[in-house]
Amino acid sequence: MAKKKENTEEKVKTGTTIIDSPISIEMKKSYLDYAMSVITARALPDVRDGLKPVHRRILFSLYKNGLTHSAKFKKSATVVGDVLGNYHPHGDTSVYEAMVKLAQPFSSRYMLVQGQGNFGSIDGDPAAAYRYTEARMAKISTEILSDIEKDTVEFRPNFDGSKKEPIVMPTSVPGLLLNGTLGIAVGMASNIPPHNLGELIDATNCLVDDPKASTEDLLKFVKGPDFPMGGVIFNEKDIHHAYANGRGGVVCRGETEIVEQKSGSFQIVISSIPFRVNKADLIIKIATLVKDKKIEGIRDIRDESAQEDIRVVVELKNNAHPQKVLNYIYKHTQLEDTFHFNMVALVDGVPQTLSLKDILEEFIKHRFEVVTRRTQFDLTKAEAREHILLGLKKALDHIDEIIKLIRASKDTTEAQANLIKKFKFSDLQAVAILEMRLQKLAGLERKKIEDELNEIQKFIKDMKDLLASKIRMKNLIKKELDDMKEKFGDSRRTKVVKHGVKNISVEDLIPEESTVVVLTKGGYVKRTNPDEYKRQKRGGVGVIDLNTKEEDFVETFLHTSTHSDLLFFTDKGKVYQLKTYDIPEGRRATKGKSVMNFLSIEQDEFVTSILPMPKDTKEAESLSVFMATSEGLVKKVDAASFHDVRRSGIKAINLKDKDRLIGAKFTKKGDSLMLVSQNGQSIRFDEKDVRQMGRTAGGVKGFSIKKDDKIIGVSVVHADAGKPQLFVFSENGFGKKTDTKEYKIQKRGGSGIKTANVTAKIGKLMAARIVTEETEEVVAISKKGVVIRISIDEVPKLGRQTQGVKIMKLRAGDSIASIVCF
Questions:
Q1: Of 188, 241, 349, 742, which shows the fewest CB atoms inside 10 Å?
Q2: Could you give the CA distance from residue 369 to residue 382 in angstroms, rounded to a whole number?
Q3: Residue in 370, 347, 365, 371 with CA at minimum distance from that of residue 153
Q4: What are the DSSP E strand ranges found in 208-327?
Q5: What is the mean pLDDT of residues 166-172?
Q6: 512-821: which CATH topology?
């Protein structure tokens, strides 16, 4: 206690003041001070000139050292050292990197610094060290500092008070939008894209003429961002929203072209990339996608870029789909990117989110102030000169008396005092008279003084008139802006597409092509290229399609498109939906994957039919789904009922305990239906005989069959089909075609007529299909996975009650599982 008292007394003696303050308050205050320092003095640009303090100091240092556009280049190390020593006491790396950005053609739309040497590349290569590179001001930077010596802007002491630095530049271009900015402060950030100078000046002039012009009016001139390396931006609506609110995302893409080679193969040529995207990283990303087999069809990638021109060539394989490959590159790389507007800048030292109009208004306000201060400076200087010239003119009018007075004076001080006393000259005039040379007494010299005085007085009158006339001030500002457009304006590099870019879905990345979907009785599914199956002569032994498990065999063989929505009908009367491309692609001999990986079916539930839903809505609306069960019940449901099937499936038909759904087909008005049983019976009736029912209904009697028989096939005879025939296949490989004219149309519910002479030789019927003139081939597959592909013309046309002919030689213990017709 005594020790504490002594310490306190000691501090009091030495004049130290102790302030008790909670640490939380101190931390909060210190952090806020730090945050405001970063926001106002480091990270965010000023709305008036669009420059951050470091950029402003770099340009001012170049200006003070005479490194203008016409001067010789000087080592970057000298510039960095001067900026550090006089204006910006931070790291040399931060200063040099800021200067490098101003000199990179791919970072700045209008470069403010001219660099000589290695200043980095769009591939992410860093600039050479500052001892190797050289720099000077770019031509446009001279205009940014134009008239700075005429008291156009406020100056403040530098960090040590030894020099003065400008608070803002007297820029004659809207710098904030010209090159844009990227700044990350504490708790806020700024992200403004670069723009085209000509468009900005046209919009500014419009706002000068009509201060009530809206952002929409200004957007007639400013079409959108104009990035240094070009590219394409999309959706006028998004662009307008971003400029009106100061925030928003705009989709940007690199420019690409699909080029066909003489060989017939294609190239994708990338000629520009989005702003701030690293070209080397983009190429590596594409290569990685190819390596990981996430993108198919690319053979090679070459970077043929030269200097500022981008040219990346993506060589495609002969069988590749160029647009699909390009869509995949857009979706999974930065060749398509979104630029997020966040137009935050300092307005009177306070960060604000600004619209396009707000930014241009602040620039115009600044420009009025600069031109006013410049005019006032010129006026004051002219008035001072007029004052001197009036004194000289008066002196010349009384030159003899003045010479006599000066000669009579003891010294200069006395002469000055006598001149002021006798002739009422001011101090400045008296000094000017005493410093006047004798040559001014010549007649021509007197004339020069009088002419200069007249000119100065005209100039003073003009300056006063300019200061008093808002219209003249407006016209002058517009003229100076037009002069800038004339000097530095160029054509737009970034293309603007008015409509929005289509969101690339998974479907856009999958080529739409023919495919075969194979499903086994055991529930394994795959899709395969139809060319995997070679056409053979009738009676061949076939080829192996896929390695099935023991006792498994192929049941469904569907020819469709990769983009189809597939409806999977199961024996329990449920339906599920799946995209064809979601089924993994395999070779002819691959096994496939269990359908349970894709559909939420039960363990004892089996898929009996797969229907591809038409993409055309009108076509789908004209269709019904016809279903048949193993016990001869039938049902017809509007196809629209199955347009949007939930992942867990929905009920398609109500079944009795032992009954099973054996097939589902699409039908339309005028069609007739054929049901075929395994014992060779068949029935044909009109689809209109079955009324449209609700999705959960149980169906009606379609075919009366015997107890030892069951339905194995349901087929549709389309009204517009050319010469339809019923093609049947027995379990021992026998088959035939029979003209459907031999099957009279009956009423539904009958016992039907014979369609084949079923004997022990041919075995029971296993499959029945309707074939037409358009049918070219038949693919038959056995339970052991052996496939044969033959022309339909090779199958003979026989009568209803015949056995058929040998279509496929089967190995011992094998039998036909299913067929598909192309």
A1: 349
A2: 20
A3: 370
A4: 232-234, 247-253, 256-260, 266-270, 298-303, 312-316
A5: 95
A6: Neuraminidase (2.120.10)
- Known active-site residue 328: no
The separation between CA 400 and the C-alpha centre of its own chain, rounded to angstroms, equals 84
CATH number belonging to domain 367-469:
1.10.268.10
Other CB atoms within a 10 A radius of the CB of residue 483 amount to 13
Q: Are 598 and 563 spatial neighbours (Cβ–Cβ below 8 Å)?
A: no
Q: Following DSSP, what letter does each residue of 62-110 receive, concatenated?
A: HHHTT--TTSPPEEHHHHHHHHHHHT--S-HHHHHHHHHHHH-TTT-SS
Give 703's contacts (C-beta < 8 A, 6+ positions apart).
628, 632, 634, 675, 677, 681, 683, 711, 748, 749, 750, 751, 752
d(CA 720, CA 195): 61
Three-class SS of 704-727: CCCCCCCEEEEEEECCCCCCCEEE
Query: Who wins on pLDDT, 720 or 275?
Result: 275
- State the DSSP code for 43: I
| Residue 2 in this model has a pLDDT that exceeds 60 | no
Question: 96, 110, 132, 524: which one is catalytic?
Answer: 132
In the block, which residue shows the tokens 């598909």? 820
Question: Of 576, 680, 573, 682, which is closest to residue 635 (Cα–Cα)?
Answer: 573
* Dist CA 175 CA 197 (whole Å): 9
Q: What is the pLDDT of residue 340?
A: 96
Sheet of 565-570: strands edge to edge?
607-613, 565-570, 574-579, 650-651
Give CA separation, 117 vs 96, 140, 214, in Å: 14, 20, 45
Six-digit token string for 46: 């000023």
| Range in 292-306, 315-329, 500-514, 705-719 the model is least confident about | 500-514
Residues 566, 756: Cα–Cα separation, whole Å: 32
Q: Using a CB cutoff of 8 Å and minimum separation of 24, what contacts does 419-423 make?
A: 423/394, 423/395, 423/398
Residue 64 CB partners (closer than 8 Å, separation 6+): 82
3-state secondary structure 665-691: EEECCCCEEEEEECCCEEEEEEHHHCC
Query: Do residues 612 and 565 touch, judged by C-beta distance below 8 A?
Result: yes
Q: Which residues contact 1 (CB under 8 A, 6 or more apart)?
A: none
Residue 181 Cα distances to 47, 51, 97, 513, angstroms: 11, 8, 14, 47
Please state, in angstroms and rounded to a whole number, the distance separating the CA atoms of residues 159 and 162: 8
What top-level class would CATH report for the domain 255-334?
alpha beta
**Tokens in use for 444?**
């021509």
Q: Enumerate the domain spans of the chain.
A: 255-334, 367-469, 512-821
Instruction: Say which residues have a Cβ less than 8 Å from residue 366's Cβ, sequence separation at least 6.
Output: 48, 49, 168, 171
What element of type H or E holds 30? Answer: helix 23-38
